[in-house]
Amino acid sequence: MTRITLATFVVATFLSVTSFSQTSSTAIAEDFKPSSLNQPGQEYPQVNSQGYARFRINAPKADSVKVSLGLGGRGGTRLTKGADGFWTGTTEGPMDEGFHYYNVTVDGGKFNDPGAKNYYGSVRWESGIEIPAHDQEFYALKDVPHGHVQQILFPSKSTGTSRRAFVYTPPGYEKNQSTKYPVLYLQHGWGEDETAWSNQGHANLIMDNLIAEGKTKPFIIVMTYGMTNELKWGKLREFKIDPFQTVLTEELIPYVDANFRTLSNRDNRAMAGLSMGGMETKMITLNKPETFGYYGLLSGGLYNPDDLKDEPKPKLVFISCGSKERPEGVKKAVDDLKGAGYNAVSYVSEGTGHEFQTWRRSLHELAPLLFK
């Protein structure tokens, strides 16, 4: 029986925050370069040293072209048509650092930018753009030992089909045949799927770099679809956790424990999620406290002491968000948990909102705290 409902989920999780930083009166620097997420050989979209984004779309017969970025976007960036049939425009302000989804509206129809690679978000494959971050080294591809991300298909009697997950195994997993590892079950947000944490979040590179630096214990990460996207935006209160809880705890976890070298007990198993994946994490960890020993909510609601009382005590409660969300709520929740005797940690990503740079940074902070 599900013990909590969506009424307990913090509404701030889905704040429609703008993707723009505060507009500066400084002139736009003309040092634009192609985004690192462009299709091979494509010059646009581009970003500059200040975080502005510039777009160029070939639509000679169109009457209007607009680019919509992220969760906000101030109504979008309207492009101007040139004599050559190309539409060009620059965001009115610098974007927050990190990854952003976007799409292009041409005469009322929604399309992807043919110059950019696509990423699954907002229940569709959308274009992606990367604004270089000052701290991007922690998820950069470096000359260090790398783990592997592999697709698995696991049987699910409850849904009558095979389901997909991606599993990160740390460097050395294949060679150290006698070593067993803890496991983090890491969930995506609404509109995304099991590809998000590897593609948009760079979870594998974050782990590779932390392990190489000796900052975290090596562990396995399992990423699967949270059954979130059948629910339309605006209907979140109708979400039921039971189907996914069954898939995760009764089907996926036993499969992973049987097919990977895991330490298959509560003290070596964690669950965390971003946004709606955090909501799922809270629901499942409260319903199944005997299954997970470490909890993480990344822009995904809060725990309070009453949630956790009379249950097996978690070894860690980690709660994070961006500074443009509601950091005061995160800090207060953690202070209350500490006051009640729980090992609780808060983290606030400076200068970001409800977006992947917040969650990349959050995973980077969370990983070293796990499985101690």
Mean pLDDT: 92
Biggest sheet layout? 8 strands, mixed
Rg from C-alpha positions? 21 Å
For the largest beta sheet, what order do the strands appear in spatially?
Answer: 12-13-15-14-16-17-18-19
| CATH fold group of the largest domain | Rossmann fold
Keywords: Signal
Organism: Salmonirosea aquatica
Pfam family, one: Esterase
Protein name: Esterase
Describe the structure.
This protein is of the alpha+beta class and 372 residues long. It folds into 2 domains: 33-132, Immunoglobulin-like, CATH 2.60.40; 138-369, Alpha/Beta hydrolase fold, catalytic domain (Rossmann fold). It is built from 7 helices and 19 strands. It has helices at residues 196-199, 203-212, 242-259, 276-287, 305-308, 327-339, 356-366, and strands at 33-34, 46-47, 53-58, 65-69, 77-78, 80-81, 86-90, 98-106, 109-111, 118-121, 124-131, 148-156, 161-169, 183-187, 220-224, 269-274, 294-298, 316-322, 344-349. The strands form 3 sheets. Strands 12-13-15-14-16-17-18-19 form an 8-stranded mixed β-sheet, sandwiched between helices. Strands 4, 5, 8, 9, 10 and 11 form a 6-stranded antiparallel β-sheet that branches. A 5-stranded antiparallel β-sheet has the order 1-2-3-7-6, with no helix packed on it. β2 (46-47) and β3 (53-58) form a beta hairpin. Mean pLDDT is 92; it is low at 1-18.
